[in-house]
Specification:
Radius of gyration: 12 Å
Largest sheet: 2 strands, antiparallel
Bound molecules: zinc ion
Shape: elongated
Oligomer: single chain
Number of helices: 0
Structural class: little secondary structure
Strand order of the largest sheet: 1-2
Amino acid sequence: MTKCLNPDCLQVNQSQTKFCQSCGEKLVLRERYRPLKIIG
Ligand SMILES: [Zn+2]
């Protein structure tokens, strides 16, 4: 899931969704930030 970055919205969208289905804000794909390995 991807949470909307808009503080007035915070809609939880499907991870494949690129735009918030509630407010239309562009979502940052969390896949880019998902660590492939535990570092440290
Ligand atoms: Zn939103």
